[in-house]
Design brief:
By secondary structure, this protein is mainly β. The chain contains no helices and 19 strands. Strand 18 and strand 19 form a beta hairpin.
């Protein structure tokens, strides 16, 4: 297991790469496996749970959406899958009926959270691997291996602004109290004050 598990309503959702590639779902108090769901590749990202679905990126280039409550069986199939051009190592983020995720194919994707329909893509200069999106006030913030932090309009996919750091941006951006924070492998921590 490379990614952190997620806990929601007493249930643990975790990527499982130990034997077969899958999502494992466990009772948080007992550790009992409630159900599993296979994916077509390894999962380096953390799941996201929202609106009755659990989302997980996979090394087969797909984003999977499974029913968060399970399907009444020990193994569940996805509600939908959406395909990108390469591995999805980025953790998905869900807001305003959309799910946002980066791919190693150098693109940020926005999908309809209920159907998986593609809403928009934004190209970056390098793969998005360890970086995950933060969403606040209708804006998606995500870094890339091209050293750039991008602020993207969540509805339209328009790039609102960019900032170039001295090395690739590591991990997820975080938004709190009117600021967006990002760390970089250039050994600096960046904070940007958001308008409004």
């Amino acid at each position: 297991m490379y990614a952190a598990p997620v806990v929601a309503r007493g249930v643990v959702y975790a990527a499982n790469n130990s034997v077969t590639y899958s999502l494992s779902v466990l009772d948080a108090s007992s550790g009992t496996v409630l159900w599993t769901a296979p994916t077509g590749g390894y999962a380096d990202s953390s799941p996201a749970v929202s609106g009755g679905l659990v989302y997980l990126g996979s090394g087969d280039g797909k984003l999977y959406a499974f029913p968060a409550a399970g399907c009444g069986q020990s193994t569940c199939s996805p509600v939908w899958t959406a395909t990108t051009g390469s591995e999805v190592q980025s953790s998905p983020s869900v807001a305003d009926g959309m799910v946002f995720v980066g791919s190693a194919d150098h693109n940020v994707y926005a999908f309809d959270a209920l159907t998986g329909a593609l809403e928009w893509t934004v190209a970056t200069g390098d793969p998005i691997t360890i970086q995950s999106a933060a969403v606040a006030n209708g804006v998606v913030f995500i870094g890339s291996n091209d050293h750039v932090l991008r602020a993207i309009d969540a509805l339209t996919g328009q790039v609102l602004w960019t900032y170039t750091t001295g090395d690739l941006i590591g991990g997820s951006s975080v938004v709190a109290n009117g600021w967006v924070f990002a760390g970089s492998f250039d050994k600096n921590f960046y904070a940007f004050h958001l308008p409004g």
